[in-house]
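Write out this protein's structure.
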Amino acid sequence: MGWSWICAIGCSHSQHPLLLDTTIPEYICIPEYIKYSRTMSLVQLLKSHFLSQLIICYVFLVSGLLINVLQLCTLPLWPLNKQLARKVNCRLAYSISSQLVAALEWWSGTECVLYTDPKTYPLYGKENAIVVLNHSFEIDFLCGWTFCERFGVLGSSKVLAKKELAYVPVIGWMWYFLEIVFCQRKWEEDRKTVAQSLQNLRDYPENYWFLLYCEGTRFTPKKHEISMQVAETKGLPKLKYHLLPRTKGFWVTVQNLRGTVKAVYDSTLNFKNNETPTLLGILSGKKYHADLYVRRIPLELIPEDESECADWLHKLYQEKDRFQEGYTQTGRYPGPIVNPPRRPWSLINWLFWSCLLLYPLGLLFAQLVISGSVRTILASIVLCTAASVGVRWMIGQTEINKSSNYGSNTSRHDNNGQSRNALGDAS
């Protein structure tokens, strides 16, 4: 950490009230550590200030809208060279989504530990795959994106999302040009449209991962209680840490991507010390400690028959539940840790957009102060206040208590314990 390992006469860090970081060596130079601690406290104070969060959101929103405009400009290219248009949109999409990854990895310093088989590790990022994620945390999507970023497939990653998200500026519009698969959560309508969207990905020019939340919505105690009532009614095994998976979306995805996708990556996420991470915490610079357990399952091992595939998925979630139980008891997942290093590109991209957009903003505010116009200054304050309210609203939409009510109705489930009108998606 940059300081000498010098014996601190009289007390160790466990005894000294200022030495609270348990990662500090047992004996260090107290004056140097106090100086370091004060510096880090100041940095953390700046990170947690709302103005810093507002600046991050300003850069993300404005750069995102500019990139959306660039994506719109690629429309004439599609009929001329579809594959080139796809590659361009992958790079443009990366420039948006990597900013959120940079906030997690570089701004908050969140650690992401990967548990996986070293034999399958070299295949990650080198093949198309379906990634099955548990949906229990407010930032699990961000951890999934970080997993994609570490292996170079963030810009081309796909997801099954509800159709309403296609109309949301920045992320939704980015997804539209990435050919994200949208569904309306009505099986009769989604049966053909989702299958066709998946078929369109068969000739995709970039390696991609298709992120799938088979539970269909975020885990909450209320939804879990209802889901387990359905499990009891249908004679399905009960789960402790997951909702019942919605098998139709998984089966449709697997069937339409056979021959293109090589494997399913069963991914189970948790956080150390019962941490409850939030997007607001990330923007405030709070550091979390994520553990991700990934198993590679060759696609040919998954049954083609819909009923058999549904049974296979239920067994998979029973295994995921056992992994979570083991993690709760031991604080780790089975198997070795194989950690891919952080790549610098997300940070470089974020610094580029920050410099590009903050410089004119600084000039504008300087001119406002110099002008001395009370009306102009008041208008600027009102604008900043409105922006801050809007940013807080957007952050609030990621909170678990603001998640959809999808999955809260016990009366609309089929024999597999899933909604008759639904596919698993990103809620």
